[in-house]
TrEMBL record:
SMART domains: C2 (SM00239), VWA (SM00327). GO terms for cellular component: plasma membrane. Belongs to the copine family. This is Copine IVb. Residues 6-137 form the C2 domain. It comes from the Eukaryota. The keyword Metal-binding applies. Keywords: Calcium, Metal-binding, Repeat. GO terms for biological process: cellular response to calcium ion. The gene is LOC109113117. SUPFAM superfamilies: C2 domain (Calcium/lipid-binding domain, CaLB), vWA-like. GO terms for molecular function: calcium-dependent phospholipid binding; metal ion binding.
Amino acid sequence: MQLEHKMSNIYESAATTLGLFNSPCLTKVELRVACKGISDRDALSKPDPCGVLKMQSHGQWFEVDRTEVIRSSISPVFSKVFTVDYYFEEVQRLRFELHDISSNHNGLKEADFLGAMECTLGQVSAESMTSWKPQVTAEELSGNDDYVELAFSAKKLDDKDFFSKSDPFLEIFRVNDDGTASLVHRTETIMNNLSPVWKSFKVSLNTLCSGDHERELKVAIDFTASNGDPRNSCSLHYIHPYQPNEYLKALIAVGEICQDYDSDKMFPAFGFGAQIPPDFKVSHDFAVNFDEDNPECAGIQGVVEAYQNCLPKIQLYGPTNIAPIIQKVADSASEEMHTKEAMEYFILLILTDGVITDMADTREAIVHASHLPMSVIIVGIGNADFSDMQMLDGDDGILRSPKGEPVLRDIVQFVPFHNFKHASPAALAKSVLAEVPNQVVDYYNGKGIKPKCLSDFESSRAFSP
């Protein structure tokens, strides 16, 4: 009883009559579902809720349909509309279940159960016509079952993202007679695009406008910033008092391995894609400790502290240009190349959540760096589309510059962090560093340079944004 009472406060259901058929007691009903105040069981992320409608038949529950999954929301409004037959003379028992379906789950069996409520279809219809107003409504519509096909596009949308272009989707609401709005349709999200063209879709005139061609509609476009405000717990850069964010997890996992091969344990650390003080101009290669003359940090812990101190002082911006930071490290590696001795080998660790916006320049920079004593490790943070990063890796083919020049050797390793989200730090470090030893040997063998004594050999310099 406690659960049912709690969930009844969470769910809102709107029942809309679609029209009468031959039987005087049979009506088709639309149910719309929304939730408020879902318990956030994960301290590091919000749930990805999906609603499931079940009906009882002969004492058994069977699934009627389910909503879409809405990512990172504790108060979702589902666009999915349930259509059921309503028999006035029968008691039709309904059960609404809510499940947390994360991206690595396959169906409800692996999902986390968030709660449920049970009621009858008669209760939904009756309450939606009385005490639940104005949040929900019920009205008898015409029998018009015609469909319309709609298609929408946009041009030159405002860019609300920090490190890449916005990821827009479109929502269409119909305006009800009492002035409230009901969600009719939500399009797919188009990643990294300011001039999106959404897929066409079909919707019944009953659902869209109750058969009233003059009924007003609203359209709303949502923009999502890639990292979000670091002060917000949903941000990829959020500094949790007890749990490191994904940036820190990746930095520590890889950095603690690399630092054992660095004689002075000093690591230059740079950031990109932010407005920095004092004039807050966008920079793509600023020192995280704000000391451009000496960007080195004492150990990986020093890098962590510089990163944490830096976040409140900068304004996250964009775009995601990584060619400048690759070129910056390449300049240092070029100086080492001219010594013609095996003294220093540079490892550039790039942590990014965004889709690269300077792909041509990045390819050019990597081809140039492939001639130098350096390797590039890229860890993708979050759930963005990292297909371009896979191309830079070169495992599926030879990477070439825009002019067609191939890399001299494969120096890039890309790993999406979400593949290791529930694995040990050692598993991530092993994956991203697996190719580095061969890359070091290939470089010096190609140059005909023999290794120095172990006491003189400084093999790794780690950089991280």
